[in-house]
Amino acid sequence: MPAACRWHVRLTIVEALLGLFPPFTLARIRRLALKACGIRSGRATFFWGLPKLTGPGPITSRLQIGSDCGFNDGCVFDLTAPITIGNHVSVGHEVRFLTAQRPGGVENAAPITIGDGVWLGARCTILGGVAVGAGTIVGAGVTVTTDVPPNTLMTGAKPVSLAKWR
């Protein structure tokens, strides 16, 4: 059995076992189970509910998460390309990280980078090729299609600098 398939089997077993428990229990155990599947994550990171991981091949090697991060229930990671998440990142319910896009039937995959101290509101979507700068707040339901500078508030189409409030 190829190595990539073994990792998917491990993920399936983890999903089956931990899926039996309510989302807001066993947060640290979820991190340890995902780490055993090959996901790199720092200390004190927790998952309230298992994220959905999709993509071809060895997907767990394409996700790297820093320390002291929190992920709410229902997050989706499309790991066609790498996703790197910094330290002290808070991720709301049902946030989607979509590295692959298929305009006109042609697949384009690009990495996603999330800086330190970023807050991602519920149901926001981060598209491939995007870098979200450190200290940025992305409001609920916002779709991020271009790079966001550090210390920015994204609540719609026009970003606002947070520098004047600091």
Task: Write structural notes for this entry.
This protein has 166 residues and is an alpha/beta fold. The protein has a single domain, classed as Hexapeptide repeat proteins (UDP N-Acetylglucosamine Acyltransferase, domain 1, 3 Solenoid), CATH 2.160.10.10. Helix content is 16%, strand content 28%. It contains two helices and 19 strands. The protein has a seven-stranded mixed beta sheet with strand order 2-5-8-13-16-18-19. Strands 1-4-7-12-15 form a five-stranded parallel beta sheet, covered by helices on one side. A hairpin with a 6-residue loop joins strand 10 and strand 11. Helix 1 runs antiparallel to helix 2. The relative contact order is 0.11. The N terminus is likely disordered.
